């Protein structure tokens, strides 16, 4: 039987850090049906410590903006124009949120979001678009977990290889300059089926979780995953497990969620 001192020591041991990265596909299933509520229920079931969401979609532009235009003077209170799928999930599940819109148009908006049940500080959102045809961003936040400040970066990279390589180098430069030490998780939709990111970030001391654990890490397409487009890189966090997504998630987005169990070193 364990004595009280053992129980106390075990109770104060930091638990593992669960991280989830998921491209929400603008809230729609692979067949184009809306899946907001089902996505929210799945997020709630995971009890993760950090969520890295891409293509979190806004339902619609608030009516005052649509009717009056951006340049028109407003006399009535304006609805929150940043309200989106990610803010709905955060409000419903009482999570902290950092939001980084990438596309902002009268008809539609979407971007990256970082959600966490732990204290979360937004550190910035940077435009890393490599060309004018794809708006991409890097969202950075810091979470306080088990007495540690963990840097969290959410990225959505370009479809073309040349653009992705530029964006990866920009992100690596930001990390070396702004977050050179301490626990760090970089996750998102890298569109990197060629795995260029693994050696590139490896040179900066970051390790890709699925690769390090010998897992395939395939997340796309969700119905029959063949490509490892989504990535999760860590530093100062020991990968413990790459968690296989549940079957139901194949019906919720065109990407499967990338889920991992990490341990702060």
Automatic annotation (TrEMBL):
Ranges for domain Endonuclease/exonuclease/phosphatase: 20-255
Superkingdom of origin organism: Bacteria
InterPro entries referenced in this protein's UniProt entry, alphabetically: Endo/exonu/phosph_ase_sf, Endo/exonuclease/phosphatase, GPI-anchor_lipid_remodeler
SUPFAM superfamilies: DNase I-like (SSF56219)
Keywords from the UniProt entry: Endonuclease, Exonuclease, Hydrolase, Nuclease
Keyword Phosphoprotein listed: no
GO cellular component terms attached to this protein's record: membrane
One GO BP: GPI anchor biosynthetic process
GO molecular function: endonuclease activity; exonuclease activity
Pfam family, one: Exo_endo_phos
Name of this chain's protein: Metal-dependent hydrolase, endonuclease/exonuclease/phosphatase family
Originating organism: Paraburkholderia phenazinium
């Amino acid at each position: 039987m364990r004595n009280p001192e053992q129980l106390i020591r075990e109770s104060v041991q930091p638990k593992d850090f669960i991280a989830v990265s998921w491209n929400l596909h603008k809230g729609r299933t692979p067949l184009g049906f809306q899946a907001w509520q089902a996505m929210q229920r799945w997020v709630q079931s995971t009890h993760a410590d950090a969520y890295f969401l891409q293509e979190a979609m806004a339902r619609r532009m608030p009516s005052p903006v649509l009717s009056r235009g951006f340049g028109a003077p407003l006399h009535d209170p304006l609805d929150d124009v940043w309200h989106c799928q990610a803010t709905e999930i955060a409000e419903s599940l009482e999570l902290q949120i950092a939001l980084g819109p990438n596309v902002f148009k009268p008809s539609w908006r979407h971007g990256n979001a970082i959600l966490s049940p732990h204290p979360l500080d937004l550190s910035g959102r940077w435009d890393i678009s490599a060309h004018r045809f794809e708006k991409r961003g890097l969202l950075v936040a810091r979470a306080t977990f088990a007495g540690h400040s963990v840097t969290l970066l959410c990225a959505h990279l370009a479809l073309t290889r040349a653009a992705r390589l530029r964006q990866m180098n920009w992100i690596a430069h930001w990390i070396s300059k702004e977050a050179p030490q301490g626990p760090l998780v970089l996750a998102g939709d890298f569109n990197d089926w060629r795995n260029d990111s693994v050696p590139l970030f490896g040179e900066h001391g970051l390790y890709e979780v699925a690769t390090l654990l010998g897992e395939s890490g395939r997340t796309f397409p969700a119905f029959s995953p063949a490509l490892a487009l989504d990535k999760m890189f860590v530093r100062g966090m020991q990968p413990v497990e790459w968690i296989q997504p549940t079957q139901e998630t194949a019906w919720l987005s065109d990407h499967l969620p990338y889920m991992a169990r990490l341990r702060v070193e």
